[in-house]
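User: Please predict structures.

Assistant: First:
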Amino acid sequence: MTTAPLTTPLAPQPTFKPRAAPARPGRLEERLGRFLFYSLGPRLITGTSVAPPEVLAPFERFTIPRTGRPGVLAATWYPAAPASAPSREPRGAVLLAHPWLEWGQAYFHRRGRIEALRAAGFHVLTFDLSGFGASARPDAFWDRDLEDALGALLARAGDLPLGFWGVSSGGYWGHVLMSRRAPFRAAVFEDVSPHLIEWSWRQAPLGRPFYLIFRTFLRRAYAYLDLRRHAGHLGTRAVAYVGGTDDPGIPAADHRRLAELASAELLLVPRAGHLAAIKLANDEVLALALATLEKGMAGW
């Protein structure tokens, strides 16, 4: 239940297509940018992946090889739930990408996303980004992990249509992937900043000298990380954004800008801080996500 009236979702508005999405920086600049960001980002407690609770059974835990890189990503497959309609065929498969929290994919064990998706007939794949849970240490920008997870999703989903649901950092890297590769028919983004360095500037002001170094000397990497240059090239049929009006790292204007560029719906939850929209407006967030996925996959 919500604790306050919600901002009415804004309907998609036609908008101009921005210039082409920025090109990936060179390998050396990407490695330097990844190292600098990872070094300055929030500290994480390393460990192994947390097993899903039995309430989410059946599920299958497995690993995804990282393409062209050593190491694997820890992942979990949740097949669509047939209990409510045994004769119904699965409607699609959805990739969930977690925020920058030490729990990794275990973040999705709560708040009902997996249960709602499965009940609606969708298979679900979750995974730990590099540096989280039981996955290997990072050695590139994290959109590479999403691409490997997408490969695993394609292998398991077969011909079913695909959807994406990313939260904070997971949604951020989803933009970067989708602007160059567009297999998803629908996408949902929660609490996504247009630029991680801008978010860090607001959230961790002591690191501002290093952020200036990043922007000044790693210009191609800085441009590559600007989601305002990716949001207009997602290649999806339906997109929705969710955020809070009281998120100190992401002003409401930033949420509106990304939604405008992606011609997407936007749900802003009053008094919600970062990662709090799903807590204060659980039913509304889940309903918008399901409606977006169903719209994108209609006609399959």
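Second:
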Amino acid sequence: MDNSHEKIHGLLKKFDTAMLVTHGRDYIEHARPMGIAGVEDNCDLWFFTEAASEKAREIEHDSKVLLVFQKDHAAYISITGLAQLTTDRLKAAELWKDSFKTYFPGGANDPNLMLIKVIVLEAEYWDNTGFKGIKYLFEAASARSHGTRPHIDEPEQHGKVNLK
């Protein structure tokens, strides 16, 4: 994995939910929060859903999706990718967490349970976590007092990464 992949992977591991945006047949985008079931080393993502859900039907119709992540006011990621639906019970058991039982009381073997795998094509991130956030606050305050814009450290604070 190169540095850009490592950067995205490291940031993704900090999130526990994402907004999944799919395209409906009416050409209107639909967004909903999704608990992240897993993050692969190559940054592909896994989510659980019900087989009969609207999002599953929308993914069958159009596999292009957008994922949006926000952690406080410090880290953001926007991902474009391709979604795939699967009923792989071994993968479901591997990714299963007890907290998913709230939405899927039948557990990892629930016949209504499906997995959504998002193959990440491109990611854009904004990272002001840790010391970068403190540095940015000083930079923003200075820029404001001087009537300028704050400096964004590329690729430390912001970048766009093609993952495929």
